[in-house]
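Summary of Year 1 activities. Much of the first year was spent building the evaluation harness for sequence design. The harness presents a backbone, in tokenized form, and records the residue chosen at every position. We chose the following record to illustrate the format because it has been used consistently in internal testing since the harness was completed.
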């Protein structure tokens, strides 16, 4: 491999909007996230459904258990 063409790969501090922080390796020194695995509904199991004009009820009425 050629010398001097690769970026510096060092430890980076990652911080989320929820306050969770951790370290990883990256070419950047700091990374800011809006959502992470600590606050994402898929990983936490806390899914929030936003009902827009009764779409959820309409779907459950049409395809729900009888």
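For this record, the design step produced the sequence shown next.
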């Amino acid at each position: 491999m050629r010398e001097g063409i690769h970026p510096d790969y060092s430890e980076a501090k990652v911080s989320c909007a929820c306050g969770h922080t951790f370290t990883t390796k990256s070419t950047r020194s700091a990374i800011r996230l809006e959502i992470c695995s600590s606050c994402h509904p898929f990983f936490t199991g806390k899914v929030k459904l936003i009902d827009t004009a009764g779409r959820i009820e309409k779907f459950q009425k049409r395809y729900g258990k009888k």
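The beta strands are 10-16, 21-26, 30-33. Quantitative recovery figures across the full test set are reported in Table 2.
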